Amino acid sequence: MAKPSMVTELAQFITPSIRADVRHTAIAYLVNEAYVNESKEIFIDEDFKITKALVDVFENLRGERVDILTIFTNLTAVSGVISNYLIVHSKLPKILIECVMTSNPWATASSKLLANLSRQFPDKIYEIFKNEWPNFIDEIMNMLLKTKLEECSDYLGCVLLNFSQLKNFRKEITHETLSLFYPLLRQNDKQGRRRLAMDILRNFTFDDDLHGQLLEESDDFLTAILTLIADENYDLDDEEQSKLPIDLQYYEGKRVTDEILIEKIVETLYQLCATKIGRNILRSKGVYPLLREFDKATSDSKATLMLADQENTLHALIGVLIRYEEEMEIPDDLHSIRNLE
């Protein structure tokens, strides 16, 4: 009789029915294995035998969940194959969402694993979220604005960021839902969350079909972004002030100084210039004079806001807005300059 493989021998000790100390020793061994990237094959071999065993224990024994969550978190950080198996062939994502919703002791570890899974397969996890947690956006945004379960909230913010890469997620978001992100931009106690909100809003601007919805229905989206770079010391005349969104006219406040955040803001505005409707609205809302003053105020900064081709993004943005549409030699019926060949 052939000697059982290491995978088979190890898997027999990872069952709900085996003696607890034996099972715990086997799982503890796998915790160490999961830290080593080269060792992930042991979790895939023999049709995911060990992974199946871990899932079975996780679903049936709460006492082993901490170590198993550690194993799966380390594995899903590097393996799309294992991530897909856990999503498609187990109840794990549903259990993780339940842990977060009920704020149980595994909530933070669960949210971390969900962040990994949603990074690997955002579309699949998004569908599970919609089914298991229908109002997840509202509740996660509420968590991000509070101090309870901070680490858990940060990981859930990453889940939303991963979802924002999906066209169907962006399409299903309404103005009312989008407005939930604006308070995160206004607060300045948690810089990381402010950047997160900006990243999510920026992802919406990569979708040219949304530019009209983002900019035409109200000034809220544009105001939320421009407020961050507005300053009471800008030299804007009355005509320039009158073109700005109402909440920015004769603004009393200071611009942000976080250079990483500023880069995200400038890129977001630049993406809106991909469409004619975006360019025209930015011009009509007085964005150029605001950027002109912002450029003056930051001219001594050591930060360089560069595109991949090393062109200065801020100056490129100003260069687009200062020109009339006919000067740009763009076909009138072209929906987006991204379509230029």
UniProtKB/TrEMBL annotation:
Domain Protein HGH1 N-terminal: start-end pairs: 100-255
Domain Protein HGH1 C-terminal: 268-328
Source superkingdom: Eukaryota
Gene3D superfamilies: Leucine-rich Repeat Variant
Family: Belongs to the HGH1 family.
Alphabetized PANTHER family for the sequence: PROTEIN HGH1 HOMOLOG (PTHR13387)
Name of the protein described by the UniProt record: Protein HGH1 homolog
